[in-house]
Specification:
With 270 residues, the protein is an all-alpha fold. It has helices at 2-29, 47-69, 80-93, 95-104, 113-142, 153-160, 165-198, 204-216, 224-244, 248-267. Helices cover 74% and strands 0% of the residues.
């Protein structure tokens, strides 16, 4: 029944694209897309402090990943086992920065977390998936990407491997770990810094720059089409950061998005 499955897949892709287009138009025409300039930069975190914390995050992440690599035998490099060690090492090493950020943000509460997270997910996740799908089809026809490909190396490893302890470590790191560390780094530290540096009437310029950086930082593990989708997703995560005045809403969106992708990958093996 390959032809039936292919037809169903194409129908779902078209349906997703139509829904994404409709919800995107609603978002632009509504007041939701309007972002005032003031109020993004955390009062307790200056641009200089944010840059130092961001640099510390990168340093500790690389250091933790290196420690993880030293625990991987040569014959297991590039496997799910290796990914588990590297991911866990990088995530654990960044805990001091996360604690420092949480301490500095202690008196700066978020607002409308549930509402912002829900709107952000409903609007930007379909847009991200539809963008990745359209770009993939275009690049596949040009011969840049294979028609049948998993957009992220971590998802490919999970698809090929067994659901063992290494897989669960990777799943936790890819959902909760990445959701927290990446949101603190990109939306908690970099985005407010760019907003302060650009000093424009709206945050969208800083949001676009942050999203380009977010997508490009995934170049080693994601396909071009997946990076296009991540760029769109990041627009929504940045929007949620600004709208809610905190990182909790984008963290929720990020975790659920990654968990959804992992669930979809495992569902194909059933």
């Amino acid at each position: 029944m390959p032809e039936v499955e292919a037809t169903t897949t194409h129908f779902l892709e078209v349906l997703l694209a139509v829904f994404a287009l409709a919800i995107g138009i609603w978002f632009i025409r509504s007041s939701q897309s309007s972002l005032p300039r003031q109020g993004y930069l955390d009062p307790a975190i200056t641009p200089t402090m944010a840059i130092l914390l961001a640099a510390s995050t990168l340093f500790l992440g690389v250091l933790g990943a290196w420690v993880g690599i030293t625990q991987v035998p040569i014959d297991r490099e590039g496997t799910l086992f290796a990914t588990a060690w590297i991911s866990a090492g990088a995530m654990l090493a960044q805990i001091p920065v996360l604690m420092a950020y949480a301490t500095l943000r202690k008196r700066c509460g978020s607002r409308n977390i549930t509402q912002v997270a829900l709107i952000g997910y409903i609007v930007f996740v379909p847009l991200a998936l539809a963008t990745a799908s359209v770009v993939h089809i275009f690049l596949a026809k040009l011969g840049v990407e294979p028609f049948e490909i998993v957009g992220h190396k971590t998802l490919a490893l999970l698809l090929e491997g067994e659901l063992d302890s290494s897989a669960w470590v990777v799943i936790l790191c890819a959902t909760i770990g990445a959701g927290i560390t990446e949101e603190v780094f990109y939306r908690g530290l970099l985005l407010p810094t760019f907003v302060a540096l650009f000093n424009r009437k709206t945050a969208w310029g800083a949001i676009i720059v942050t999203s380009i950086l977010f997508a490009c930082m995934h170049a080693e593990v994601a396909t071009y089409s997946a990076m296009a989708g991540l760029f769109v997703l990041s627009l929504g995560l940045c929007w949620a950061r600004v709208k809610s005045s905190g990182v909790l809403a984008p963290i929720v969106i990020h975790i659920v998005f990654n968990a959804m992708n992992i669930a979809i990958v495992y569902s194909t093996t059933l």
